[in-house]
Amino acid sequence: MERDDRREAIAALRRALELGLTHVDTAEMYGSGEVEEMVAEAIEGRRGEVFLVSKVLPSNASRRGTLAACDRSLKRLRTDHLDCYLLHWPGEHPLEDTLQSFEELRRAGKVRSYGVSNFDEQLVREAVRISGRGTIACNQVLYHLEERHADAGLIEACDELGIAFVAYSPFGSGSFPAETSRGGKVLADVARAHRATSRQVALAFLTRRSSVFAIPKASSVAHVEENAGALKLKLNAAELSAIDAAFPVHRHRELPTL
Length: 258
Hints:
Layout: H1 3-18, E1 23-25, H2 34-42, E2 51-56, H3 63-77, E3 84-87, H4 95-107, E4 114-117, H5 121-131, E5 136-142, H6 154-161, E6 164-168, H7 182-194, H8 198-206, E7 212-215, H9 221-228, H10 237-246
Parallel strand pairs: 1-2, 2-3, 3-4, 4-5, 5-6, 6-7
Helix pairs in contact: 1-2, 1-9, 3-4, 5-6, 7-8, 7-10
């Protein structure tokens, strides 16, 4: 990461904390640990304000590998615990081994909770079968207006199992709906009614359920401030229906990921 980019990202994280956006998500994979080090710098002196999440790579998620990976992340993040630790995506190591290590880390106080990422309905049910109901804190999944596979059953399954659903890339991967598109026009109309932005409306729609959270990437202070504006935005039934119709649900054979 370039020095100027790093400085801007740190400023954005610090501004997020000021605005009450305290869920900070990272992973050992991001920048091969460099992003965890950047997060440590950003939250220095403010660890108590942050809900800090990191993720273990599937290739490291063996029984012993998970424990070692967590220790490395804790060292880079300059903290003695994570608020939540996730398996980044399903891998070749037995899920039983990874979850046993997560539970060992929880008992040791190194993680407060643990969960999964990129798990479909079958896998998330298997995780609960292995570790017990009430142990899997969340499932972090790709979810945005133009990729609503999760609305075809996965979110409902997580609700049933008492698992929070965390939407990553809620603005899409560089393809937020243009205002000239049908969906973009709907978002713009709703935004005007609320004196908001289309991105704020999108976030409000995606988090319309109390069990769904979003972790939009924000690399600048301006982006953070825009995201924070969605916290108080409440869409009415007609607006929710219009957005739902403009961005229909499509179920894929496999869970979409990035």
